[in-house]
Specification:
This protein is an alpha+beta fold. The chain is built from four helices and seven strands, in the order E-H-H-E-E-E-H-E-H-E-E. It has a seven-stranded mixed sheet, with helices on both faces. It starts with a strand and ends with a strand.
Length: 140
């Protein structure tokens, strides 16, 4: 069952995020991961709506901001069991999201969103550190 994620769970979310990133984002420079984690913790968590699935701890999390999916991460040992799909369906049906940005090099995620009805609308290179990681802007 998907439930709101509380601020008291942010540290657990950040731990899950890092495990998931290290398992799925092999294209990232490992030295960049702590930088991204700090940005997530200080700039993003307080401004997005967060929801999770728990089973003896957080096993999946989704974050939305308006019509945009801002994050979706699943415990690596549980990937492929429908948790991500459940979180995405919740975000689409309960939060009415219609947009997502995804790293171009994260081929598994790109295909995951395509199967859910998203299509690539444009590609961008961000400024600064993220410039090395092109983003695909997808909509449904």
């Amino acid at each position: 069952m998907v439930t709101p994620l509380l601020e008291q769970d942010w540290n657990d979310l950040l731990d899950l995020w890092e495990r998931s990133i290290r398992a799925t984002h092999t294209f990232l420079d490992p030295d960049d991961i702590p930088i991204f984690k700090e940005v997530l913790a200080t700039d993003h968590l307080g401004r997005i709506d967060l929801f999770c699935i728990k089973d003896n701890g957080i096993i999946g999390v989704v974050g939305v901001d308006g019509k945009s999916l801002e994050l979706l991460f699943v415990e690596p040992s549980l990937m492929g069991r429908g948790i991500g799909k459940m979180l995405l369906e919740y975000a689409m049906n309960s939060c009415n999201i219609s947009k997502v940005e995804v790293n171009e090099d994260n081929k598994h995620a790109v295909e995951f969103y395509k199967r859910a009805g998203f299509a690539v609308k444009r590609r961008t290179l961000c400024k600064g550190l993220t410039k090395r990681y092109p983003m695909l802007h997808m909509e449904r």
